[in-house]
Each structure stands twice: as structure tokens, then as C-alpha cells.
Design a protein that fits this description.
Largest sheet: 5 strands, mixed
Strand order of the largest sheet: 7-9-8-11-10
Number of strands: 11
Order of helices and strands: HHHHHEEHHHEHHEEHEEHHEEHEEHH
Number of helices: 16
Distance between the termini: 60 Å
Length: about 450
């Protein structure tokens, strides 16, 4: 609008200038713009003559232009103020939407046009705690283990403290050295109960500090097996030091100390068991389609480092002529970056048996998984991988067979045995699966 008024003003100056007057550069430029057409007129149509504005239009334009030049410019809002206003608008929109019973996204017309993500074939990777029998998600493992061990102190404080030492300390070599040193302390007391020096452990001792004090859970272990903390004077000095001192009543329970030592040496870290999440699905044309959650693709820190190294090596090998053995080796290394795999087994009646496995578990685990789900688990069968390849070597891991991060397999009965059963006229059930599994059959989405 401002530009329009400026052109009128320049045009007025141009018209008011006499023959002998010289126009300024802006005025001349505006005049030329008004006179030269933007497009070349057609030959057959002559341009219409242009009439100048009336006196009233000139006066109105001049007045409007003067008002625009005198009007102060509005100060643009600061970025912080704009953000606050935007947030306030969004909150008000969400509040209004909640009153109407719909979300702000649903009110947005573009929301209905978005394609919904495919539902995952399994909601995640889950584990079963052997102490509590609770099923927990993969990302809740560490927290649950700590809570389970902590709650077990009320049941058996010695066993709980030993589990804590073996489970919560990840450096296995440090655990081994520390455990052997603590077992030596207990062994000395058991073998030499009359020796008072073995009943005291100086906490500032170099061996204790380097081998034992660095481990989580060791103080709760000493307290649970009968030691107490005391501050004792240092012989020949005016200073004191802290010691673990065995309570006197424990000298009458030396067999218990021997048992604690054996538990300490033989204990294994507490490990949550992988939940197979056994599912049975009806026959479906989508049997080979898998939508896996992120849990199946998470890499450990060591695997991430290996992936970076492999990328560097790939650049160097790109120009090399690789043999078949080299290509197969690289494929195997690629498969090892998956920690889990989701497997489905299609039965002869079309029903699907699904379970979650470690990528490094042997094929024999899958055979046992299928056999436990069958009504007649004595019937011999074979599992065929993608492409009809028979999985005859049950000692191979899933990642070595290319069955990661997911795969559809087929169960095939032993032909000779099935022929004998048919010849005997024995009636076969409608499905080979156990009835309790068929009662929870699902539809594969």
C-alpha cells in the first residue's frame, strides 16, 4: 500500500514539473515506471490512454502518505515473548479441546491424514525375575534386580549380600579376587578359632582397600555373617583405627562360617530369564511380516565400537576382490549385532507359534520350545528355515543360521512316522498344539 502511494506522489511531482524543471532521480524513475508498460502490447490492440488522478484523489493520496510517514513503527515482539505467547495459545487450545472431549491433535485436520505406524509384532523384550517371578521390561532389569535383592535381605541377609556382591559388580576379575580374599578371612577363623588376630580385620589395610573395599555389598556381607565395626587403639601409638571384629557368639557357630564361605565362592550372579512370550496365531497371509520394537536393535557399547571399526574396514575392502568365504564371514559379523530374535513356526495346519530368543542361543532351544507346545511331543519333526533349508545342526546359534532379527520357519513331520499313523487308522486331532494354547489363540494383525 505504501508503495502505491509513493508512486502516486512521484507521478504528481512529475506532472507538476514544468518543461524547464529537472526531475530528481527517484521522480524520474517513478515516472518511467508509470509510462513504460510491463508487457509488450499486442499489435492488433492499441493501449488505452491513461488519465491522471483527479484533484480530490491527489489530495487524498498525499494526506494518506503523510500519515503513514508520521506514524511510529510498532516494535516487534521479542523472541522470548513470542515463545511465551505461542505456548499460551497451545495450552489454551489443549484446554479447550479437553473440555470438548477431544485432543488437540484430533482437532487438527492434518492429523487425520497421517498414516498410523504399524503395530509391532511384540511389544518389547521381557524378563522373568527368579526371586520375585515378576515379568519386567528390558529397560527395567537393573532397577528390578536391585530392588529384588534388597527385599531378599528380610528373608536371608547372608544370601542377599552374597548375591549383591556377585551381581552388582560388573568387573568379574575384581569380584573373583575380592571373594577369594574374603573367603580366606573366614577360613582362617574356622581353622584357627583360638587365634585372636584372625578375628579382626583392619579396614585401612592395603589388601582390604585394594581388593575388598572397592566392591559393592561387601560391608553388608561382613555385618550379616557376624562382624561389627569397632574403633580400637593402635598398639604403641596414641591413635585409633577402625576394624571389623567378629562377635564372640560366632565362635560357637564355626560351621556356619564355613557354610558362608562356600556360598560366597559358589554363588553366581543373579540373572533374569528371558521371557519367551509364547503366542499362538491363526493362519495368516501376514505370517512372514515382522514389525520389531527398538529393543531388538539396541547395541551394547562393545557392539557400537565394533560397528565403527567395521565401517572403517568396509571402506578399505570396497576395492578388494572378496572371496565367498570372506563375504560369508562379513555376513555373520553383521548378524551378531542383534541381541534378540523373534521366531515364528508355521505348523502343518497353518497355525503359528511365536517366541522370543537370544540371537546366540542354539537351534536346539527352538526345537524344545516347539516340542513343549505340541499335544503329542513324541512325534519326530524337522524345522525348515527360509528357503526350505533344514535346520539339522541343532548346535548352531540363530545368528549363525541367519535367523535374526526375525524369521518364519516351517514344521515338517517325519514322513515315515506319519505314514504309519495313517495306516493304523488312528484319528488325529484337528491341531497338533496343546488345548490350553489353542484357548488363547490370537489373530495376527
Amino acid at each position: 500500500m505504501r508503495k502505491f502511494f509513493q508512486e502516486i506522489k512521484v507521478d504528481l511531482k512529475f506532472r507538476s514539473a514544468g518543461p524547464g524543471q529537472k526531475l530528481s532521480e527517484p521522480a524520474r524513475y517513478g515516472a518511467l515506471r508509470r509510462r513504460v508498460p510491463k508487457e509488450k502490447p499486442k499489435a492488433e490492440a492499441a493501449p488505452k490512454p491513461r488519465h491522471g488522478p483527479t484533484d480530490e484523489a491527489q489530495m487524498a493520496a498525499a494526506a494518506a502518505l503523510a500519515r503513514m510517514e508520521l506514524k511510529p513503527k510498532a516494535k516487534p515482539p521479542s523472541s522470548q515473548g513470542a515463545i511465551k505467547n505461542q505456548v499460551r495459545k497451545e495450552l489454551m487450545a489443549e484446554a479447550a479441546a479437553s473440555v470438548k472431549g477431544v485432543s488437540a491433535d484430533q482437532e487438527d485436520p492434518a492429523f487425520s491424514d497421517k498414516e498410523t505406524a504399524a503395530e509391532p509384532s511384540v511389544s518389547g523384550v521381557y524378563f522373568i525375575c527368579p526371586l520375585t517371578s515378576t515379568v519386567v521390561r528390558k529397560d527395567e532389569k537393573e532397577k528390578h534386580i536391585r530392588e529384588a535383592i534388597k527385599s531378599y535381605f528380610s528373608v536371608d541377609p547372608v544370601a542377599a549380600s552374597i548375591m549383591e556382591i556377585h551381581t552388582l559388580n560388573k568387573d568379574r576379575e575384581k569380584v573373583r579376587v575380592g571373594v577369594e580374599t574374603m573367603a580366606k578371612y573366614l577360613d582362617n577363623i574356622y581353622l584357627h578359632p583360638e587365634e585372636e588376630k584372625y578375628q579382626k580385620i583392619k579396614l585401612q589395610n592395603k589388601v582390604f582397600q585394594e581388593r575388598i573395599n572397592c566392591l559393592e555389598g561387601i560391608h553388608r556381607f561382613f555385618q550379616s555373617v557376624g562382624f561389627e565395626t569397632r574403633t580400637l587403639p593402635v598398639p604403641g601409638q596414641d591413635t585409633t583405627e577402625e576394624y571389623y571384629v567378629l562377635k564372640e557368639e560366632m565362635l560357637t557357630k564355626l560351621e556356619d562360617l564355613k557354610d558362608y564361605k562356600e556360598q560366597l565362592l559358589s554363588c553366581e550372579p543373579l540373572r533374569l530369564q528371558l521371557d519367551r512370550q509364547l503366542c499362538v496365531f491363526k493362519p495368516s497371509p501376514e505370517a512372514a511380516r515382522f514389525e520389531l520394537p527398538n529393543d531388538f536393535y539396541n547395541l551394547t557399547a562393545e557392539e557400537i565400537k565394533r560397528e565403527q571399526r567395521l565401517r572403517t574396514e568396509a571402506v578399505e575392502k570396497a576395492s578388494m576382490l572378496r572371496t565367498r568365504a570372506m563375504r560369508e564371514k562379513e555376513e555373520q559379523r553383521e548378524m551378531r549385532k542383534y541381541n534378540y530374535t523373534l521366531l515364528r513356526v508355521r505348523l502343518p495346519d497353518g497355525y503359528l507359534l511365536q517366541g522370543t530368543f537370544y540371537a546366540r542361543e542354539p537351534v536346539s532351544v527352538l526345537y524344545n520350545f516347539v516340542r513343549e507346545a505340541l499335544r503329542d511331543n513324541w512325534l519326530p519333526f524337522e524345522l525348515l528355515g527360509p528357503g526350505g533349508l533344514k535346520l539339522t545342526d541343532e548346535n548352531l546359534a540363530f545368528n549363525e543360521c541367519g535367523l535374526v532379527p526375525s524369521a518364519l520357519l516351517t514344521l515338517a513331520w517325519d514322513a515315515a512316522v506319519m505314514s504309519d499313523i495313517e495306516a493304523s487308522g488312528q484319528e488325529q486331532p484337528a491341531s497338533p498344539l496343546k488345548p490350553e494354547l489353542l484357548s488363547h489363540v490370537q489373530t495376527l494383525s
